Amino acid sequence: MTLPYKYRGFVMLAALAAVLPWTAWHFALQDTFAAWRDCRRLAARLETLAPQTAQPAAVAASDGELILSGGLLDTVRRAAAESKVRIAGYEPLVTAEQDGVAVHTARLTLTGGYTALVRLVDTLERTLPACRLRSLDWQTAADRRTRQTQLTLTLYIQQIVIKE
Q1: Which of 9, 159, 4 is nearest to 96 (CA)?
Q2: Residue 89 belongs to what domain range?
Q3: From residue 137, how far is each of 28, 79, 96, 140 by CA, in Å?
Q4: Structurally, how many domains does the chain consist of?
Q5: Are strands 132-142 and 101-111 parallel, antiparallel or unpaired?
Q6: Residues 98 and 138 occupy one common structural domain
Q7: Per-residue buried b or exposed e for 51-88, using 16+ beta carbons within 10 Å of the residue's own CB
């Protein structure tokens, strides 16, 4: 099809106006819009399921000091008893003290499966309002007895305590 030269620019502009939006939608925006729609649907579903999920019992002394008193370790033991997570180590210490305020830090080492460890971390974040997870360190190591690779998670948990 041969077009006269004076109409060629207009036809190209009309083709560009029709093809460009379709191309942008098909190759760039369609997947993004589908992901956004799925995210909104799942968020709405999560909102309806949130009141139904049972929260583990929080520590009775959530106002006081949890790291040096062992309250944190008791909470972790209760949460780990439900899953296949073992506590491999617990080291509480005072990292900073100044003007009546102390920062207590605990290094907690856990072993187990990835899913169980992630669920335990989620449980700890929800049930320990006075403590904050500052760092997570994932490592794999060979178990000396079974010679199988095991996943180790080291948590660094801090709490600010006001001294009176």
Answers
A1: 159
A2: 71-162
A3: 37, 19, 22, 10
A4: 2
A5: unpaired
A6: yes
A7: eeeeeeeebeeeeebbbeeebbbebbeebbeebebeee
What is d(CA 105, CA 65) in angstroms, rounded to the nearest whole number?
11
Secondary structure of residue 128 in the 3-state scheme = coil
In terms of domains, do 88 and 148 share one? Answer: yes
pLDDT digits (tens, 9 = 90+) for 11-27: 889 989 999 999 998 88
pLDDT computed for residue 52 by the predictor: 56
pLDDT in tens, 78-98: 888 888 899 999 999 988 888
What confidence score (pLDDT) does residue 64 get? 76
**In sequence order, what are the residues at sequence separation of 6 or more whose Cβ sits closer than 8 angstroms to the Cβ of residue 60?**
none
* 152 contacts 111 by C-beta, under 8 angstroms: yes
Residue 150 sits in the same domain as residue 107:
yes
Q: Which residues contact 22 (CB under 8 A, 6 or more apart)?
A: none
Chain centroid offset of residue 139 CA: 17
- H/E stretch holding 158: strand 149-162
Residue 154 and residue 78 share a domain: yes
The pLDDT of residue 58: 40
- To the nearest whole number, what is the mean pLDDT of the chain? 85
